[in-house]
Specification:
Largest sheet of chain B: 5 strands, mixed
Number of domains of chain B: 1
Shape of chain B: globular
Strand order of the largest sheet of chain A: 1-2
Low-confidence stretches of chain A: none
Radius of gyration of chain A: 24 Å
Largest sheet of chain A: 2 strands, antiparallel
Low-confidence stretches of chain B: none
Distance between the termini of chain A: 77 Å
CATH class of chain B: Alpha Beta
CATH superfamily of chain B: Phenol hydroxylase
Number of domains of chain A: 1
CATH class of chain A: Mainly Alpha
Number of strands of chain B: 5
CATH topology of chain B: Ubiquitin-like (UB roll)
Largest interface: A-B, 60 and 48 residues
Order of helices and strands of chain A: HHHHHHHHHHHHHHHEEEEHHHHH
Oligomer: heterodimer
Helix content of chain A: 55-70%
Shape of chain A: globular
Number of helices of chain A: 20
Chain lengths: 507, 118
C-alpha cells in the first residue's frame, strides 16, 4: 500500500515571516508620505523599520487560539460566579467602591487604549509594529469587555455601576483617567506608544494590576480576579512591546533621545496622578488590605523602575523628572485624595466612609511618618462633626488642575501643610496646576491644554445639565441618596448585610 | 509652535470669561487649613463687592473648620495670584483687580488647630 505523502509543514520562523513581514509591500502609485502622513511630524526619525524586533513573534492564528482558550475559561468562571451568588463571597460591600471606581475610570481607559492602538497600528509605516499594535488593540477591547461583563453581575445587586460609560465622560473624579487617554490619543503615534505602551504599560501597569487583583483575591472577588488573570498574559506582552518601542526609537537616531525623554517626563507625571486613585483604593477601600500604596510603590515602582532606568541609561535616558519626589509623596497622596473624595461624596457614584479606628491604626502603622501627624487629626475632627450630627460635606467645588484635572489637593514638596499652587498666564488667560510636572506639561503644548474640558468650570458654564446640583446629578446619572454618600446606612450596605446573613443563619 | 502638530494649530480656550454668562470664577484658598481639601470656586459677578464674596461664598464653606470662629477678618493676610494684596472690602471684585480665574489666598497665622501634630 502506498503511503500518502504529507505536505511539509511550514516552520515557525517561515510562518511568522509570511504572516507578518510578508504582509507589507512597497507602494507604487501613492507616496509613503501620503499613506503614512503622521509618521514624521513629531520629529522622531526612523531609518529602517525592518530593524524592529518583534518580542513575541506571535502570529494571528496562534493569537486567536490562545485568546479563545482564555475566553472559554473566563466565561466559565464568570457564569459560575453569577450562578453561585459569588457577590456574597466578598468581605464587605464597602469593597465595591474600589470596583466602581475601576469600572468608571479604568475599564473605559482599556477601551480608549483599544482605539489608540488600532490607530497607531495604521499610522506606523513598519509592518512589525503594525501587527503588534493590531494585536494589542484587540487585547484592549477584550479587556474592556471582560471587565464590563465581570462587573455586570454586581450591577444586578448593587448601586453605582449602572452608568459607568456616561460617568467616564461626565463625572469629575474620572476625568484624571479620561484626560490621560484623550491627551495620548490626540498626540502623534510615537508619543502615544511612549505614553501608553511604555510609560503606562511598562512602568506603571504593575501598580494598577498586581495590587488591585491581589486586593480582589484578598476580598473574595472571584470575578475581578478572573479578569485579572485573563488579562495578565496580555499585559506581559504589552510591557514587552512598550520596552521594544522605546529601544527601537532610541537605537534608530540620536536625535530621538531628547524627544523620548520629554515624553517620559510628561507621561510619568500624568501616570502618577492617575495612580493616586489606585492608592486610595488600596489604602482606604479594601476591607482586607494587601499592602499600602507606599509599599506597592516601593516594590513595583522604585525597585522595578531603578532596574529599568539603569538599563536605559546606556541610551542616555535618565529617570523621569519628578521620580525623586515620589519618595516623599508616596506617604501622602492617598490620604490627600481620600479626604477629598470623602468630603465631596455627595458627588461620587460610589460610597465613602470615615475610616474605623482599626483602619486608622493600620494606616498609622503603614505611614508612621505622616498619618498620625497630618491626616489622623483631620479624620478625628470629621468623626467628631459626624458625632455632633453635623456630617462634614464640602460644597465648595474644587479648583482643578488644568493638566491632570484632579482637584488641586496635593501639597507642596517639602511642606505637607501647604497646597502646591502653580499658575500660568497664556494669551491673557489664567491656568492653574497641582504640581510642577503638570505645569511643565502645559507649557510644552499650551494650545492643547487650554481646551481641557474641566468638569467644575463646565458646571458653572451651564454645560452639565443646565445648572445646580440636582440637574448635574441627573446629567451624570447619579441617583442622589442611592449611588452616592456614606456607605453606612446605604442600600448597598443594608442589602449586602441582609443577603449575607441569609447565607449564614436561618432568619 | 505651542503644540506638536503637522500644521499651524490654534486651540480654543474652554474657560474664557465670555462662557460664564456675566459671571466669573474666583478661586479661594485658606492657607494651612486643609480640612477643605482643595482651593474652591467662588462664582461671582465682576461687579459684586469683595465683602459679599467673603460673606456669601467663602465664609459658609469654612464653618466646619475649628478655627473658623476665631478668624479676625480685619487681620487676615491676603494674597492675590500668590502676591501680597490688600483688598478693599467695599470695592467690587473688578475694582480689586481680581480677574477671571484669579486666585485669592488668605492667611490666619496664629490659627492652626488641624495643621499638624508636632
Amino acid at each position: 500500500m502506498d503511503m500518502k505523502a504529507t505536505k511539509k509543514k511550514i516552520g515557525m520562523k517561515e510562518k511568522y515571516r509570511l504572516l507578518t513581514r510578508d504582509l507589507g509591500w512597497e507602494t507604487t502609485y501613492q507616496t509613503k508620505e501620503d499613506i503614512y502622513p503622521y509618521a514624521t511630524y513629531e520629529g522622531i526619525k526612523i531609518h529602517d523599520w525592518d530593524k524592529w524586533e518583534d518580542p513575541f513573534r506571535l502570529t494571528m492564528d496562534s493569537y486567536w487560539k490562545y485568546q479563545a482558550e482564555k475566553e472559554r475559561k473566563f466565561y466559565a468562571i464568570i457564569d459560575a460566579h453569577a450562578q453561585n451568588n459569588g457577590h456574597l463571597n466578598i468581605t464587605d460591600a464597602s469593597y465595591l467602591s474600589a470596583l466602581k471606581i475601576f469600572l468608571q475610570a479604568i475599564s473605559p481607559a482599556e477601551y480608549a487604549s483599544h482605539k489608540g492602538f488600532a490607530r497607531v497600528g495604521r499610522e506606523f509605516p513598519g509592518v512589525g509594529p503594525q501587527v503588534a499594535c493590531q494585536m494589542q488593540s484587540i487585547d484592549e477591547i477584550r479587556h474592556a469587555q471582560t471587565q464590563i461583563h465581570a462587573m455586570s453581575n454586581y450591577n444586578k445587586y448593587y448601586n453605582g455601576f449602572h452608568a459607568f460609560a456616561d460617568q467616564r465622560d461626565r463625572i469629575w473624579y474620572t476625568s484624571v483617567a479620561r484626560s490621560f487617554f484623550d491627551d495620548a490619543m490626540s498626540a502623534g503615534p510615537f508619543e502615544f506608544i511612549i505614553a501608553i505602551g511604555f510609560s503606562f504599560e511598562y512602568v506603571l501597569t504593575n501598580l494598577l494590576f498586581v495590587p488591585f487583583m491581589s486586593g480582589a483575591a484578598y476580598n473574595g472577588d472571584m470575578a475581578t480576579v478572573t479578569f485579572g488573570f485573563s488579562a495578565q498574559s496580555d499585559e506581559a506582552r504589552h510591557m514587552t512591546l512598550g520596552l521594544e518601542c522605546i529601544k527601537f526609537m532610541l537605537e534608530q537616531d540620536p536625535d530621538n533621545l531628547p524627544i523620548v525623554q520629554k515624553w517620559l517626563d510628561k507621561w510619568f507625571g500624568r501616570g502618577m496622578r492617575l495612580l493616586t486613585l489606585v492608592g486610595t483604593m488600596m489604602d482606604y477601600m479594601l476591607p482586607k488590605r494587601v499592602m499600602s500604596w507606599s509599599e506597592a510603590w516601593e516594590i513595583y515602582g522604585e525597585e522595578n523602575g531603578k532596574a529599568l532606568f539603569n538599563d536605559l541609561a546606556r541610551y542616555g535616558i535618565r529617570p523621569p523628572k519628578g521620580w525623586d519626589l515620589t519618595g516623599e509623596s508616596k506617604e501622602h497622596v492617598s490620604h490627600q485624595l481620600m479626604l477629598g473624595l470623602y468630603q465631596w461624596r455627595f458627588g461620587t457614584s460610589f460610597h465613602g466612609w470615615i475610616p474605623s479606628n482599626d483602619d486608622m491604626d493600620w494606616l498609622s502603622s503603614k505611614y508612621p511618618n505622616t498619618f498620625d501627624k497630618y491626616y489622623r487629626p483631620r479624620w478625628d475632627h470629621i468623626k467628631k462633626l459626624e458625632a455632633e450630627g453635623k456630617p462634614f460635606k464640602n460644597y465648595g467645588l474644587p479648583k482643578l488642575c488644568q493638566t491632570c484635572q484632579l482637584p488641586a489637593l496635593f501639597t507642596e514638596p517639602g511642606d505637607p501643610t501647604s497646597l502646591c499652587q502653580r499658575e500660568v498666564t497664556y494669551k491673557k488667560e489664567k491656568y492653574h496646576f497641582c504640581s510642577d510636572s503638570c505645569q511643565d506639561t502645559f507649557n510644552q503644548e499650551p494650545e492643547k491644554y487650554i481646551q481641557a474640558w474641566l468638569p467644575m468650570t463646565q458646571l458653572f458654564q451651564g454645560n452639565s445639565g443646565g445648572g445646580g446640583l440636582d440637574a448635574w446629578m441627573d446629567w451624570v446619572s447619579l441617583q442622589d441618596g442611592v449611588d452616592n454618600g456614606d456607605y453606612h446606612g446605604s442600600e448597598d450596605q443594608k442589602n449586602f448585610d441582609a443577603w449575607k446573613s441569609m447565607t449564614t443563619s436561618n432568619k | 509652535m505651542a503644540v506638536t502638530a503637522n500644521y499651524e494649530y490654534v486651540g480654543v480656550p474652554a474657560d474664557t470669561l465670555a462662557n460664564f454668562h456675566g459671571n466669573q470664577i474666583v478661586y479661594a484658598c485658606w492657607d494651612q487649613h486643609l480640612l477643605l481639601a482643595a482651593p474652591f470656586i467662588c462664582f461671582v459677578t465682576p461687579e459684586s463687592l469683595f465683602k459679599d464674596m467673603v460673606t456669601g461664598s467663602i465664609m459658609p464653606l469654612l464653618e466646619s473648620d475649628p478655627d473658623f470662629a476665631a478668624i479676625d477678618w480685619s487681620k487676615v493676610e491676603w494674597l492675590k495670584s500668590n502676591q501680597p494684596f490688600t483688598p478693599d472690602f467695599e470695592a467690587s471684585i473688578a475694582g480689586n483687580g481680581i480677574g477671571h480665574k484669579d486666585q485669592v489666598r488668605f492667611r490666619t497665622p496664629n490659627l492652626n488647630t488641624l495643621r499638624a501634630i508636632d
